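Homework help board

Subject: predicted structure for assignment chain

Our instructor gave us this sequence and asked us to write out the predicted structure in token form, then describe one feature. I got the tokens but I'm not sure how to describe them. Can anyone check?
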Amino acid sequence: DLHPRVRRQRQMCKETDVIDKDTCIGCGACEGTCPVGAISATDDGKFQIGEACVDCGACAGGCPVSAISAE
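My token output:
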């Protein structure tokens, strides 16, 4: 079951967050902020958001280079 705040954010957000691989520096800050573990490293050392994403936006706030945006 999702935390009530995450559930509310998921209901409000109709977009999907994506990581810009050209901007991503591979620091992993986003991975630690994801409440559902939907972010993982790729073979090139960058990160990707998987299907488990609940569109809460926590990862975007945790990215130091603003590589995450809504698509």
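Reply (TA_rk): Your tokens look well-formed. For the description, you could write something like this. The two ends are 26 Å apart (CA to CA). That's the kind of observation they're looking for.
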